[in-house]
Protein: Amino acid permease
Organism: Chitinophaga barathri
Amino acid sequence: MSKSLFRKKSLTSILQEAKKNESDAHASGLKKVLTVRDLTLMGVAAVIGAGIFSTIGQAAYDGGPGVIFLFVLTAVTCGFTALCYAEFASRVPVAGSAYTYSYVAFGELAAWIIGWALILEYSIGNIVVAISWSSYFNNVLEGMNVHLPAWLVTDYQTAKEAFAEDPAKALAWTTAPIVNGWRVIMNIPAFLIVVLITIVAYIGIRESKKSANAMVGLKLVVLAVVVLIGVFYIDTSNWTPFLPNQFEGVLKGVSAVFFAYIGFDAISTTAEESANPQRDMPRAMIYSLIICTIVYVVVTLVITGMVNYSEFNNVSDPLAYVFDKLNMEKVGYVISISAVIAATSVILVFQIGQPRIWMSMSRDGLLPKRFAKVHPKFHTPGFSTIVTGFIVAIPSLFLESGIVTDLTSIGTLFAFVLVCGGVLLLPPADKSTKRFNLPYINGMIIVPVLFVAFTFFFRERIKEAFVNIAYFDHELVLFLIFYILAAAITVLTLIKRLSLIPVLGMLCCLYLMIEIPVSSWIVFFCWMAGGLAVYFMYGYWKSKLAPKTA
C-alpha cells in the first residue's frame, strides 16, 4: 500500500493526455484564447484586491512604514516560488496548478493533499473577499443615499455581537424579521456577487478575461491617481520611526500580506486555455509579481506618509480613510468604488481557478467524473464551476465578516513548499528547447552561509526554543521545527549540490508558515484530516493509477 500511495504520473503520460484532450473536443474543448497579456492581467487582478484596499491598513499599523519590507520579503518569496511554478508550467502545460505538479514530483497522496489544501485556499479566500466586497458595496450605496436594510448586509453573529456591545446602534439585530423565533439576518450582496461572477465564469473564459482585463485597467488607473494626488500631501515626519515595533511588528502582517499575493498561483490553473503556455505562463507569473510589488510598496509609502501609521488600527478602508482625513471625501468615494471593482476581479479569478483544479483531479479519477465534464457550448468545466459557486455563495450569506485569512495562507504556503521541492525532483530539462528553464545556481556555499547567519541573528530565540521545549510553547515548537527542517535542507544542499532558487523558496515559505497563529494550524490539520478520509474512501480506489482487479 505504501507504494501505491506515492504512485506518480510521468511527464510523458501527462503530455500525451494533454494532446488527446486538445484533439478531442468532447473530452476537453477548453478554448486556447489567453495571451501573455491576459495571463499577466489575471495575476494582477487576483493580487491587487482586498489586500491593498483593506488589510494593508492593519499591516501598516503593526509594522509602521517599514511594512514595505514585508511586501518585499513576500515578493521575493513568491518570486522564488514563481520561478519554480514557471519551470513546471513550461514542462507540464496542463490545468491543475500545484496539484498536477505534485502528482509528477511526489506522487498521488501528496497531490491529493495539495488539491484539498487548494480547495481551502480558493474557497475560504473567496468567501473573505465576497464579504469584504459587500461592505464596500454598501458604503458606495450609502454615498448615493441608497440604504439597504441592515439585516440584509451582515451576518448573524456579527449582528448579535454588535447588539451586545451597543443595542442602540445594532440596527441589524433590532430591525431583523423573526421567523419561528430566529432573526433573519444574512449578507445578500456577498451572496449575489458570487452568483453573478459564477455565471460569468460559467459562460466562458473569453468573457471572463475581458471582464478581468477591464477591471484591472480601471483599478490601476485609480491607484495611479491615489499616488499622484497623495504624493503632494506626504509629511516625511510620519515615516519616523520607520520600524516602530521592530521587525517583529512587520511580521505580524504576514497572513494579511501573503493573502494578497497568492493570486499568481491562479494563473497556472488556466494552462490549457493559454495559447502558448510553455512560453507565456512563466512570463506572466513574473510580470504580474513585479507589477504588484511595485504598486504595493509605492501605495504603502504614500498612505503612511499622508497619515501616521498609528491611526490605521482597525481601519478597514485605509485608502479612502487617508483622503477623508484630509477632507477630500470625493476622492475617498471614488476609491471605495474602485475597491468594489478590485474585489470583484479577485472573486472572478478565484472562481475560474478552483473548477480547473477539480477538473484535473476528476480526470485522474480522484473525484467523480462529472467534475471533469466540459460544457459543449461554453467550453468551461460547467459542473465544477457551479459547485464552486455553491461552496462560496452559501457560506458568504452567513459566515462572520471577521474570518481570518490565516487558513488560506497556510494552504498556499504548503502548496508553494511542495512546488519548490518538486522542481528538485524533476529529471534534467532539455536546455535546447525554446521554453523557460529555471537557471541552476549551486547552493552548496550560499545556503550554508545563510543558515549560519540565521543561527547567529536568531541565537536567542533558538536557545529559548531548546531550553523551554518541555513547556510545549506552540510558537517555540513551530520555530524549532522550522530550524530543524532548515538544518536538514542545508545539509542536503551541501551534499547533493541542490539548486539555490528552489531551496530558498522552500526555506522562505516554511519560515512564513511558522509566523501564522497556532489556532489556525489546528483548524488546518482538521481540514486535512477530513480530506484524507475522503481520499481513502473514494480517491484511492477510483484513481486511474490504482491497480486493476480481475
Summary: Strands lie at 178-179, 182-183.
